[in-house]
Amino acid sequence: MRVPCLNLEQDRERTMIFSSPFVISFLLLVSVPVLFVLAPRILPPKTLPSIPDRDEMDDLALFRRTTLASSGAGGSGGIRRRTAAPPKIAFMFLTNSDLSFAPLWERFFRGHERLFNVYVHADPSSRLRLVPTPSFSGRFIPAKATQRASPTLISAARRLLAAALLDDPANAFFALLSQHCVPLHSFRFTYDAVLADSGAPPAAHGDAVLRHRYRSFIEILAGEPGLWDRYIARGDNAMLPEVSFDQFRVGSQFFILARRHATMVVRDRRLWKKFKMPCLKSREDSCYPEEHYFPTLLEMQDPEGCSHYTLTRVNWTDSVGGHPHAYRPLEISSDLIKELRRSNSTYSYLFARKFSPDCLDPLVELADSVIFRD
């Protein structure tokens, strides 16, 4: 009976030793540096919210339908257009608040109903209090939640492109705009400028749909300050091997794409699997995926078919928190409109942002005498 008693006493001694404050403190001190070394390898990096799987599946189904419809029309331009229908511009509004400038856009569109279509992607969480005007009524597409520093803004733009491609074979250009954008010229001036001789290389074959290769108006820049920080926003090597740093581009979120490029964006899977990855929380200030995906994709696939500049004017001189200057009513004047039109590119700017909602009345006052008088 002495052996069991002896073992019991030894167990008690071990328990007392390992439960003593000294030993516990020692083990804690040793474990801290071990955890510091191993934690980054064991725990996943802290990232910003990613796109929900359900949203991604819905989008893929939409994009497949669009791709199949485009493929059935001969491939590289999109759905075959009826010869009697003139080419149209699809005006695509990406918004998370009221379309405050809809009355101004109505005056812009008036009399040109055969030459345009309107599409609106409104964040489901936004509460639109204003009654849509005729051109916007019934033009809302199925939408998903969007947020800054997130690939959801890319997804929303791709949704708009897919909806416009499927909706009307006559849509030849696709202009992405925000609720804060306003026109700087008349509709006829805008339409003629976009459809003017593009300078893009002609199609290699004689398909009537593709004979005239329109150019896309999208800003594509390389070597900009802070570009490296943006490139590694998802992780140091996250973009490889699909996108090397020398292929990574930046540009304005707002663009006008020709139909073949809109189809190209909707078909893409290769680059999207990289750009849909969420950014690291620690690099949130460098996360602007919507300013990189489109210029990078088009620069890699058809650089000669792009203007490399945008036709939407933005004032970044006193930006705050990544937001551009927002014009207020007292700033609205004929001189401002004329200044906003000025550009170093082939065409003057056609649109401008960002305007506060209370700018509507002074802008409407200038509509006929200045804005729509080219």
From TrEMBL:
Species this protein is from: Musa acuminata subsp. malaccensis (Wild banana)
Keyword Nucleus among record annotations: no
GO molecular function: glycosyltransferase activity
Sorted UniProt keywords: Glycoprotein, Glycosyltransferase, Membrane, Transferase, Transmembrane, Transmembrane helix
Domain of life: Eukaryota
Coiled coil, from the record: none
PANTHER family given in the database record: CORE-2/I-BRANCHING BETA-1,6-N-ACETYLGLUCOSAMINYLTRANSFERASE FAMILY PROTEIN-RELATED, CORE-2_I-BRANCHING BETA-1,6-N-ACETYLGLUCOSAMINYLTRANSFERASE FAMILY PROTEIN
Transmembrane regions listed in the UniProt entry: 21-43
UniProt-listed InterPro entries: BC10-like, Glyco_trans_14
Name of the protein in question: (wild Malaysian banana) hypothetical protein
Lineage start: Eukaryota, Viridiplantae, Streptophyta, Embryophyta, Tracheophyta
Subcellular location: Membrane
Membrane topology classification: Single-pass type II membrane protein
Pfam families reported for this sequence: Branch (PF02485)
Gene Ontology annotations for the cellular component aspect, listed alphabetically: membrane
